[in-house]
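hi! just following up on the protien thing from before. the input was this:
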Amino acid sequence: MLLPEIDFLPRIKKQNDKLYIFDDIRKKFVLLTPEEWVRQKFIHLLIQNYDYHANLFQVEKKLQYHQKVKRTDILIWTNDAKPYFLIECKAESIVLSEQVLFQATTYNSIQRANYLGITNGKEYMCYRFIDEKGMYEPIDVIPFFEY
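and the predicted 3d structure came back as:
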């Protein structure tokens, strides 16, 4: 599905011939890569349009998967510190494939968030995790935050 347009005016700076974007979640400038652009845009979309609170976001959370350390792009927690929504971001040039979905579901096998999303900044796919069945159900919308 196509992402809705948002009013996104990021703070960007240039340093040593590289561009950096301010991450409101991590409270610092980070290297502006194509994937980082998508991540920041999606964070702002969730906060502006879907009632998510910035203090519940975690960006690039480390995960131990077998013997490897992985990082989730965006993980949003509930008010009682349970994983709510895990999002895997890809650059706009990357197609949202089964491989991307597999990566996200692998990360969520550790976190067990209620919702799972993948996006490339132009399109998105969202799923509800049905814990008792260990399955994902596609949903047509980005879930609003539930308190």
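The chain has a mean pLDDT of 94.
The two ends are 26 Å apart (CA to CA).
cheers
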